[in-house]
Design brief:
The chain is of the alpha+beta class. It has a domain at about 45-130: Nucleic acid-binding proteins (OB fold (Dihydrolipoamide Acetyltransferase, E2P)). The chain is about 20% helix and about 35% strand. It has helices spanning about 10-30, 45-50, and strands at about 60-75, 80-85, 90-100, 110-120, 125-130. Strands 1-2-3-5-4 form a five-stranded mixed beta barrel. A hairpin with a 3-residue loop joins strand 1 (about 60-75) and strand 2. The mean pLDDT is about 85.
Length: about 130
């Protein structure tokens, strides 16, 4: 009678197993990690162009990150007007947080990502807001 050889792990199977583990790791990093910016497809606001001539940006949607510096005005129908310090730079912009965000608690010193539209008068109106 012949003896059977011992069953051992063959080196050939190590290569596909390593590729599978690497693919699972990279897939997890791609889908679970990385950039969580919900507004990554929105163009950033060119502040210099806005300060020079806001009319040239009318009707367009942009985003920027800013810290609320001061509350300037409130209207239950129009919303709240805030002075917002930009995180990138030393500029302060007036932002009208529309009435649809009245339930949002916005306080001085909080940082937000503002998605804004430049209206017909050059005022920055919020389309969306997210805390950073």
């Amino acid at each position: 009678m012949r003896r059977r050889g011992k069953s051992s792990l063959r080196p050939f199977w190590l290569i596909p197993a390593a590729v599978l583990v690497l693919a699972a790791f990279l897939g997890g990093r791609f889908f679970l990690g990385g950039n969580h910016d919900a507004f990554r497809t929105v163009a950033p606001l060119d502040v210099a162009s806005y300060m020079e001539n806001a009319n040239s940006l009318r009707g367009n949607v942009y985003k920027f990150t800013g810290e609320v510096a001061n509350s300037l005005a409130y209207s239950p129908t129009s919303g709240r007007l805030f002075a917002v310090d930009l995180v990138e730079g030393d500029d302060v912009l007036p932002v009208l947080v529309t009435a649809e965000f009245n339930a949002l608690n916005i306080q001085k010193g909080q940082r937000f990502i503002f998605v804004i539209e430049v209206d017909e008068k050059g005022l920055l109106r919020t389309k969306n807001i997210s805390k950073t």
